[in-house]
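Researcher: Here's my situation. A collaborator sent me these components and asked whether they could plausibly form a single complex. I don't have experimental data yet, so a predicted model of the whole assembly would be a useful starting point for our discussion.
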Amino acid sequence: MAPINDRPEARGAGSERGSGPVARTRGAVRRYPGVLALDHVDFEVRPGEVRALLGKNGAGKSTLIRLLSGVEKADEGTVEIAGTVLTGGGSREASQLGVATVYQELSLIPQLSVAENYHLGALPTGRGGLVRTAHMKDAADAALAELGVRVDPGMPVGALPVAEQQMVEIARALRGSPKLLILDEPTSSLAAAAVDVVLQAVTRIAASGVAIIYVSHRLNEIRQIADSASVMRDGRLVETVGTKGASSDDIVSLMLGDAASATEAPARHTSAPATDRPVVLSVRDLAVPPKVRAATFDLHEGEILGIAGVLGAGRSELLRSIAGLQPPASGTLTVFGEELRRWSVRDMIRRGVGFTPEERKTDGIVPLLGVDENIVLADRRSVRRGPLLSGRRQRAAAAKLVSALSVRTPDVGVPIGALSGGNQQKAVIARWLHRGSRVLLLDEPTRGVDVQAKAQIYDLVRELADDGVSIVFVSNELEELPLVCSRVVVLRDGAIAAELTGADITESAIFAATLADGTGSAAASTTGESM
Amino acid sequence: MSSTAQTQTAPAEAERQVRRLSLSRGVNELGLLAAIILLYIVLGAKAGGFLTSGNQLGILRDAAQIGIAAWGMTLVIIAGDIDISIGPAVAFGSVMVAKGATSWGLGVPLAVVVTLLIGTAIGAFAGFLRARFNVPSFIATLGVYSALRGLAQFISNALPVPLPNSGFFDFLAGSIAGVPTPAVVMILLLVVFLVIALKTPYGRAVYALGGNPRAAELAGIPVKRIRISLFAVNGLLAAITGVLLAARLGSGNGGSAMGLEFDVIAAVVIGGTALAGGSGSILATALGVIFITLIGNGLVLLGVNQFLQDVVRGVIIVLAVLVNVLLGRRNRLTS
């Protein structure tokens, strides 16, 4: 099913050696309970080659990476590194054979110096077991210089810009002279300008003969550095294409497959476009460094506006800034006709804007307090009798919302930490309804909740919009935007790059718009500047 | 919506967890109550004069010295902070009121008011350092601890400052309907703080910000203002304790209330309030106050060497907290 490496565009260094592939999987299968995560994948990568690995969330990229780096074992088929079949000896075995992996989340210790982080786990020691500080610094300095980075190796890593922290991480991965370097979205946390540092380093590393597997959602990056791209979908390696030959549209349709257009459910939102309704929230040239340069969009009454973008596009930053958590560097916000330049969380709450954060556990709920107290948290005035809180009114107010939003709880007094994620999320939304908020900013409202709860949250959001509540819906799961949104704007390169409305809101159109690198995408009506 | 097995298990699981939570709380308070009863039985049998009404009233008077500050401390700890400056703040208050009423010529009523105001202001300052600049409350109050102890000794030349003859101080040192006045103050404040903690938006906001400061902030709760006020209240309570102490001793004393913060924090923690913040109960603290006071009283009556008393108290406090932690861990493991 998967034509592999039909165009082995190995680069100079690799072909000179004329050696076999650095890594190869044959018929690799990996199952998780209820899921076939990897379905007979044949994959190989040669020395000096930069191979991009593409696919939607859940396509099997991470599973393939985990097999190659030895973290997991294939249920069927084989994984070979440098000609040796992995026997299930874990990541240690793979790393001894020459695999190094840099994961998306940085694994540095911010308080320790660059040099110590570089040597972490293997500090060079001299006589008496003491650390050879000077030697350690020199080695770290040399390693980073080789990647084109100059930093003071004595500096704490936390004080460096994120791009340079990423370079320290990559340098550390190269310490054992690996044959295969796997980079899992190394640029997702970087601003566009900082990406070049990483890309140049990757090119240098490949030139020295190391094979590189590069996972990214940014097609223009992939074009710059990768020779070929393997596209995965539903656990299968669909095709490996040369990045020079294939258009963005080709790649996008490979990633989405035929299924995408078939399953695109019209079961959606209110039919009437709300754009003729009054504007309740108006964002103008909002800049939230480093990721958001100038975002401009309007939110209309009763509208569900989706904000899409690849991981690291700055969706959450934009939303948090509107909510008052992070002051913007420039730009204005108009709320119900009132223009603001500076605003706090409390300013926004007072004006009827409620925000449900992405990290529900750490930012959203007070786990030990009851569901009722969590619901009335943003407005206790209405549940008081005189100066004191009325437990009865508090329970009554909460009970009303609990049943309206079908929050599943044995009692409204139950500590909210005991509920499931979906029910916690509904309670956090209920908090703003209790406060009488007319604008809701929902950051990843369905993250970590089960399928049924997701459907209930979609229903809830639609019902609220029908009642005239205006909603901004940020989600990393593109397939849910067509289900709920009446309009979707796409954040790319720090600005709103595209806008989709009505029937144009399809998963593939949104996906294409988030990735687009200017070569055009037929499906998305790309408006360089929205409104 | 259809109720599948999945959605049905969630509330059932929640219910079980709730029962476990309330159970552990009950166990803690019942256990403390049992320990207090046990102390009464043992001390009643072994320690001569323990059950006399004179000694019982003395216990109440001693409890007030710890209890008044412990109510505020419970809220501070629920909010995830700590205030270790209680002892010096009480001593400073006692010196202030004595100096104010005598050599500074303020007169008794004004001296009392000024003492309470300054105590509040000093607490608010520590709270301001915590809330505005994120100075850890342990450090902020450690600074206050040292400064106030030094100031109290400096102002008083390390000598007791006698109080003037005053009906008001006699009243504070005396009793109301047979109950020592400080104990009456403590009980009145206990009721006030119970209501604050359980029934006011302010009190519930304290629980919320201790349980999850970020969520509280996002819900529009004025986290900074509440933090400052908590320390201000603690300063006020320490000043009240200081005035009562001065009235009882007949003088302000810069070296008094040594180690009082130890007893106050121990009472709160024995009551089951977690130092991590977010949960705790004023009523349980009240049991903790009684427990600590009984042990102190009993050790004296049993004639235990004064230095060994400290050892015994230290061991008992750590044991009590250990039991709490183990109970908590068992609950977490089974959940």
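Model: Some features of this prediction you could bring to your collaborator: Chain B touches chain A at residues 1, 4, 6-7, 10-15, 17-18, 21, 195, 199-201, 204, 207-208, 211-212, 214-222, 278-279 (CB under 8 Å). The beta strands of chain B are 161-162, 175-176, 179-180, 251-252.
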